[in-house]
Specification:
Layout: E1 5-12, E2 18-26, E3 31-39, E4 48-52, E5 57-61, E6 64-65, E7 73-74, E8 78-82, E9 87-90, E10 104-108, E11 113-120, E12 126-134, E13 139-142, E14 156-159, E15 163-167, E16 183-187, E17 192-195, E18 209-213, E19 218-222
């Protein structure tokens, strides 16, 4: 079944702090609307997202809670969005193994799983941990063979049908010269990750946006 839609979940607004709201964009008419039936179980920003296009589900994992953006509190909570009825719910079996924010997510729909990569554990520390979520069972487990080549949060990710690319990020929010251009490639068939200098970003940056053109074998990192 095709699901011609996408979802924007959570975030930091400034005046209201972290929010739990979810918006849905309909591709056929380029319209966006708030989904009152789908809200995050916990208001947060910097969560990672993976999607199961086969069964029509999305998973939002980790993120930062708290009202002070300069003192983010890492979360391990994972929520599941069901595309067929625009509903969402916390799924404790899918919670991240290490609580963190600024998480990068890549999806392996052929293999029926996704990966939550890296993330910040505090304003001064980050992790290279990668967790693997199995879509059929809604379960998450640590996948040490897929850990990033360096600790970092707020990296950006794209994926092809066989590989994920995790690029940029920062080692800590309160350290100068901590922003990276590094790109790691995660090979889905072997659950292994390695640095790939030929794929590094043209300049070091964190929190970039990214889009996939999977059928054309391309991905784009912007801003």
């Amino acid at each position: 079944m095709s699901y011609p839609q996408g979802y924007f979940a959570g975030g930091f607004t400034g005046a209201k702090g972290n929010v739990s709201s979810i918006d849905k964009i309909t591709y056929s008419n380029d319209t966006n609307s708030a989904q009152t039936t789908a809200v995050l179980s916990q208001a947060r920003q910097g969560a990672g997202g993976v999607t199961d296009t086969t069964d029509g589900k999305g998973y939002i994992g980790g993120g930062a809670t708290g009202s002070n953006i300069n003192n983010p509190q890492p979360s391990n909570v994972t929520d599941k969005i069901t595309y067929s009825n625009d509903s969402s719910a916390a799924v404790t079996t899918a919670n991240l193994i290490v609580a963190r924010f600024g998480v990068a997510g890549v999806s392996n729909n052929a293999g029926g799983n996704g990966y939550f990569c890296g993330g910040g554990t505090s304003v001064s520390n980050s992790t290279n941990n990668t967790d693997k979520i199995t879509f059929s069972t809604d379960t998450t487990a640590s996948q040490t063979s897929a850990n990033l080549s360096s600790n970092r949060g707020y990296a950006t990710a794209v994926n092809s049908k066989t590989k994920g690319y995790i690029s940029g990020g920062m080692t800590a929010q309160n350290k100068s010269n901590s922003v990276l251009a590094t790109t790691d490639i995660l090979v889905f068939s072997t659950d292994t990750t390695s640095a790939a200098t030929a794929s590094n970003l043209s300049e070091a940056r964190q929190g970039a946006s990214a889009v996939n053109a999977i059928q054309n074998g391309k991905g784009y990192f912007a801003s």
